[in-house]
Amino acid sequence: MIVLGVDPGFSVTGWAIICKQGNKQTLIACGFLPLPAKKQLHERIGIFYEFFTEKIKTYKVTDLSIETPFLGKNAQTFLKLGYLRGVLCLMAYQLNLKLHEFSPREVKLAVTGFGGAQKDQVARMVSMLFPGLPQPKTYDVTDAVAVSLCGLWKQ
Question: What is the largest CA-CA distance in the chain?
């Protein structure tokens, strides 16, 4: 089983790929995809689609794990995240991947034991689970690792 976890964002999207063989889980790759603010909406969506299609095919991903959005202060941001989630859902269908969706609270609860954990707490726990993980520049990466773990553990 190979899970791609995605923390979608219209400025920066975090991603992580974790493999499970027997009882062992291995972080294969992780990082973030910056989406250029100067590009038009459809170009950013295209960049997003091409990037993740390549990752899925390269790493032979079997499962896709994503975080459900929450409506914060900005409704426009919430709507734009819907585009990215739609792309991911379509990719799961097209590439015959199992799709797992988790609320932010579910992810925090699964990884830290507390559904109201802060991002730095999630990052610390992820770093403990994968000691070789370099300190990422953004919490989007550690959030994606956490989302990926949820997809792995739900099996």
Answer: 45
CB atoms within 10 A of CB 81: 20
Q: Which residues are catalytic?
A: 7, 67, 140
For the whole model, what pTM was predicted? 0.91
User: 146 is written with which tokens?
Assistant: 């956490």
- The rounded distance, in Å, linking the Cα atoms of 103 and 115 is 10
Cβ density class 92-105: b for 16+ within 10 Å, e for less: beeeebeebbbebe
Q: Which of 49, 147, 65, 77 is nearest to 106 (CA)?
A: 147
Angle at Cα 136 formed by Cα 133 and Cα 140, nearest 5°? 110
58 by DSSP, 3-state: which?
Answer: helix
pLDDT digits (tens, 9 = 90+) for 100-151: 999 999 999 999 888 888 888 898 899 889 988 777 777 899 999 999 999 9
